[in-house]
Amino acid sequence: MKGLVLDADWEPREGYLLSDFERQTGKAITGSSVWRNPKLAVQEVEKPTPGPDQVVLGVKSCGVCGSDIHFYETDEEGYILYPGLTKFPTILGHEFSGVVEEVGSQVRDLVPGEMVTAEEMIWCGYCTACRNGFPNHCENLEEIGFTIPGAFAEYIAIDAKYCWKINDLVDIFGSEEKAYEVGALTEPTCVSYNAIFERAEGFRPGAYVTIFGTGPIGLAAVGLAEAAGAGKIIAFEISPQRRELAKKVGADYVYDPQEVTPSEVIMDLTGGRGADMHVEAAGVPHLTVPEMEKSLAINGKIVQIGRAAQRVPLYLETFQVRRSQFYGAQGHSGHGNFPNVIRLVASGRLDLSPIITARYDLDSAVEAIAQSGERRDGKIMVKM
Ligand SMILES: [Zn+2]
Ligand SMILES: [Zn+2]
Q1: Which of 58, 94, 200, 366 has CB 3.0 to 4.6 Å from 327, enough for a Cys bridge?
Q2: How many CB atoms lie within 10 A of CB 26?
Q3: Which helix (H) or strand (E) holds 254?
Q4: Confidence of residue 375 (pLDDT cuts 50, 70, 90)
């Protein structure tokens, strides 16, 4: 079968001390300090067969994620930009949907022909974090498309317990093809759902919500805020194309943060009350969080989804006087996230299909990632 394989040289930067874990497993904890000279190509690879608890999916759609871009782009010394857990060579791609083609001997609730999407985080279920109900913080994590083969490929093998059925999406979207595309948006949507509703414990209908950064994760946050009954949704985004998409999926007001002072706009639009929930999906908290802090409602919340390896000053007095909270969020697994998002989409109350702005076939997957690097599309889909 064909798959989009990323390979790179294992060349730890001068001064980066490899841990025993990294030496033993060949997995880099800080990928951007270890992997150099990435090479990305569609290649012929072996078709997987299912283990006893696994299914093999015929992949139908797989979205390009910001992290895929960070594998492709390098710094001036040739190191990948992605700072997380990685093991190469591997097949990229982790936001996918597909049809069950083969099932292992122990699989009970999936049969060939069913339509599914899947989690990307392969939580172990045994470590203390997993056993305490925190799969997004698994201590033995594998990640599809980061440390094990991903879904920019014709087929993928995955344990059945990470799969979620999306058969119900066909009725609302009218065709299997559309249902597979929208189904492949489930994973990034669950990242936003987990942040807003699980980590930050949601907001009351009618609340004022802001979204900083409307790339795919921020766009999903806008759609979710609309579906959950926000009173006003105010978004900030530097790309004009993405500002248009934010309006399409439910933002009431969208601004270029280079042209306005976000905190002033928010205080104005909320009659001086401030926002009940601020969502950071821009990955530039040193710029966004100070603006959020100046426009926090009493009992307001800030939830951080964007990743950034930097310190951000906080004026904690504000958090005391405004009775405010700051939440860090990562991941998409557990807590009802996948089934709830799929139900919401199947109900017609959450339609993120407008954010899919480009489609490529598997042979052109490298071009898909290159276009994504221009950061003006919503979601780019690779279709098998
Ligand atoms: Zn992703
Ligand atoms: Zn675990």
Answers
A1: 200
A2: 11
A3: strand 253-255
A4: confident
Digit-coded pLDDT (tens) for 15-53: 999 999 999 999 999 999 999 999 999 999 999 999 999
| Distance of CA 63 from the midpoint of ligand 1 (Å) | 8
| Helix (H), strand (E), coil (C) string for 180-230 | HHHHCCHHHHHHHHHHHHHHCCCCCCCCEEEEECCCHHHHHHHHHHHHCCC
Distance 125 CA to ligand 2 centre (A): 5
**Ligand number, closest to the Cα atom of 137:** 2
Could you give the angle at the alpha carbon of 153 between the alpha carbons of 152 and 157, nearest 5°?
110
pLDDT at residue 9 is higher than 80: yes
84 has pLDDT over 90 = no
pLDDT of residue 210: 98
Per-residue pLDDT for 72 more than 90?
Answer: no
DSSP string, 142-178: EEBTTTB--SSBSEEEEEGGGEEE-TTHHHHHSSHHH
| Residue 354, preceding peptide bond in cis (omega within 30° of 0) | no
Separation between Cα atoms, residue 337 and residue 120, nearest integer Å: 13
Take residue 68 and report the two structure tokens written for it. Answer: 């895929």
Distance from Cα 264 to the centre of ligand 2, integer Å: 43
Q: Which residues are catalytic?
A: 67, 70
Q: Which of 163, 137, 159 is nearest to 148 (CA)?
A: 159
> What's the burial of 12, exposed, middle or buried (CB within 10 Å: 0-12/13-18/19+)?
middle
Residue 22 DSSP class: H
Tens digits of per-residue pLDDT, 311-338? 899 999 999 999 999 999 999 999 999 9
Q: Are 119 and 162 in contact (CB under 8 A)?
A: yes
119 CA from centroid of ligand 2 (Å): 14
Report angle CA 86, 335, 347 to the nearest 5 degrees.
105
Mean pLDDT of the chain: 96
Say which ligand is closest to the CA of 141.
2
Band (pLDDT 50/70/90 cuts) for residue 307 is: confident
